[in-house]
Amino acid sequence: MVSLAGGAIQHADDLFSRLKVDVTRMRNNIDVTRGLVYAESIAIEISKKMGKSEADKLVKLACLRAQEKNCHLHKILAEDPSVPRILDPLALEQLFRPENALGAANAFIERVLKQIGS
């Protein structure tokens, strides 16, 4: 069992040592979704003002319209008359920025780094 675990660690080390982050490709992968990747975080933000089930319904319908019209979710939400009463244009725009969609990732990273440093 120890030998298998050691082998797995060696393979993981080999894989991670060759891992390269392609920021441009990552951004392109996000952009290809036309904003649909942000639907959950948008629904969560909207639910703070109107309730979860209503927010989920609003965002789900907006996603369906974005797919039907083959356009970005931001455009659909910006054109929806109910959205400006909930989110101002700047707040809506912020929800579509990848750097604002990390959720608790930074806290998890800090926790792991702190444990490693201990």
Describe the protein's topology:
Elements: H1 2-17, H2 23-31, H3 39-50, H4 52-69, H5 73-79, H6 89-95, H7 105-117
Helix pairs in contact: 3-4, 4-5
Total of domains: 1
Number of helices: 7
Low-confidence stretches: none
- Number of β-strand runs: 0
Q: How does this model look, in words?
A:
The protein is mainly α. The protein has a single domain (2-102), classed as Ribonucleotide Reductase Protein R1, domain 1. 69% of the residues lie in helices and 0% in strands. It is built from seven helices and no strands. The mean pLDDT is 88.
In short:
The chain has 118 residues and is mainly alpha-helical. The protein has seven helices and no strands.
Question: Notable features of this structure?
Answer:
118 residues, mainly alpha, Ribonucleotide Reductase Protein R1, domain 1, 7 helices, elongated
